[in-house]
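Example 3.2
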Amino acid sequence: MGLVMKKYVHEDCLLGLWEITEDFSSLDNLLDLNSEERATLNSFKSYSRKLEWLSVRVLLSRMTAPGVRIFYNGKRKPFLTDRTFNISISHSNKLTSVLISRKHRVGIDLEYVSGKIANLSGKFLTPSEENAIDKKCWKYHVYIYWCAKEALYKICDKQNINFREDIIIDPFIPGSEGILNGKVYNNTIHEFFTLTYFKYQNYTIVWCSK
């Protein structure tokens, strides 16, 4: 299916979604990888990991320009080689997302809604967050919490943050889309954020910028 979304979601924040229906060769042929990128791609043993990696770069080329390249710092936070945009990346199952902005820090996370993360909710939700879960749609509600905390973790540069203790999401009633308020609070960070969430098919997606 390829590109399923490319739109400005806030000021200069551009969000893209790519649904992976192509095989390896089809995605690879859409890119002109340099030797370093080719070596990285070849280092992946998993076929699905190769597809994810390629899809991120194909999507980015559709959002910016061909030839823009991604590198990672020591904490696996992505950057663009020309520093033209701040970038955040997420992928799950067959869906890849990229959020870029020239002016703002950005964070995005998406997850395919299954039972895996929902069954681990006690490891990343505070007691008050768990008490706020709507039992009629508990799985989806938990996934929004998880994606929101992942997005905040990314926008804060993955700095020694404990998901359960340092990231707090205010209570909310889940819908097909909506706004969340959250904060990151520890010894080095004390910030408040507004996040946006929405559904795409069976995926939960949460993004934020600041």
